Amino acid sequence: MTTIKRLGVLTSGGDAPGMNAAIRAVTRTAVNNNMEVLGIIGGYQGLIDDNIIPLDSYSVRGIIQRGGTMLLSARCAIFKTEEGLAKAMQTIRKRQMDALVVIGGDGTFRGANDLIQHYHFPVIGIPGTIDNDIYGTEYTIGYDTCLNTVVDAVDKIRDTGSSHNRIFFVEVMGHESGFVAMNSGMACGAEIIMVPEQKNQMEKVRSFLAERARLNKSSMIMVAEGVEGGAMAIAEKVKQEFPQFDIRVSVLGYIQRGGSPSSKDRIAASELGVAAVNALIEGKYGMMVGYERNCIHLEPLEKAVKMHKHINADIIKVAESIGTFTPLD
């Protein structure tokens, strides 16, 4: 057991629905264990700038249903330097923090790992990203809400696509990871799902569209933003090769990050927030709290940032069985 009197908490990188629920869980669990809680405004930049507010059980009241993050978020290039780390550590010492909880994705965890490696300071991570691409956890906060948002939007797009017999290319987030495209595409009944994990997918698209010309049916093609330059670029190629088609592109963009978190995200954020504080109390630092087989799991942060999470092969088989799908290599 470790004595922690003062705990810092921050959110960093892209916001995700459920981050507020995680802040709430961390704060209330810490307070119930006789800790003071300091909320760091604006991620690592706020830590460098000493932009910090006290948090208590009352100050996190009424935020569990809110999207975004009450602590705000930002990307901080200077934190990647030794100078930035040193300034952050000065704030930590000035504020007499004993440990830090960071909520975010891959970049957030890289920053936390740097702080651990350089100063051996107790840090624990909570995975919060709509991409669900963090190694060492089956689920990240915000992913479920993102999928529901995409499915709702695409269902409406499919209605107009069917009415006008159009081909719709729908772009969702995912520069390097296809989790959002894969699962939302399957849920929406997309005929083609294009993910970054697979290269040179245009031949599959051409083959499908040639068949589609014969059937004369509306179609939905789900594209992760990191594929072939994105949906706009792919659609332009298709227009040149298949000028007879009525093609439309819909880029969902930041709508995927917003909205009130789903019940699943609220519950996951609450569980992970409590687990993060309990892990620190037990002296388990340099870890990420996540899920493995639906149970709370601790993964070393260093491993989480070095390893790559792959799309589940069983999900790929399901998608292949129920629609036209570009398989992974």
Radius of gyration: 22 Å
Q: State the CATH architecture of the largest domain.
A: 3-Layer(aba) Sandwich
Multimerization state: single chain
Q: The biggest beta sheet, please?
A: 7 strands, mixed
Question: Unreliable runs, pLDDT <50, ≥5 residues?
Answer: none
Mean pLDDT: 92
Give the strand line-up of the largest sheet. Answer: 3-2-1-4-5-10-11
DSSP, total strands: 11
- Coarse shape: elongated
Q: Tell me, what is the CATH class of the largest domain? A: Alpha Beta
Proportion of strand residues: 15-25%
Number of domains: 2
Structural topology:
Layout lengths: L5 E6 L7 H14 L3 E5 L2 H7 L2 E4 L26 H13 L4 E6 L1 H14 L3 E5 L15 H22 L2 E6 L6 H10 L3 E3 L7 H14 L3 E6 L6 H11 L5 E5 L11 H19 L5 E6 L2 E6 H6 L6 H10 L7
Parallel strand pairs: 1-2, 1-4, 4-5, 5-10, 6-8, 6-9, 7-8
Antiparallel strand pairs: 2-3, 10-11
Helix pairs in contact: 1-9, 2-3, 5-6
Question: What can you see in these coordinates?
Answer:
With 329 residues, the protein is of the alpha/beta class. It has 2 domains: 6-142 and 261-306, Rossmann fold (3-Layer(aba) Sandwich), CATH 3.40.50; 144-257, Rossmann fold (3-Layer(aba) Sandwich). It has 11 helices and 11 strands. The chain has a 7-stranded mixed β-sheet with strand order 3-2-1-4-5-10-11, sandwiched between helices. The chain has a 4-stranded parallel β-sheet with strand order 7-8-6-9, sandwiched between helices. Helix 4 links the parallel strand 4 (99-104) and strand 5 (123-127). Helix 1 packs parallel to helix 9. The longest helix has 22 residues, at 143-164. The radius of gyration is 22 Å and the shape is elongated.
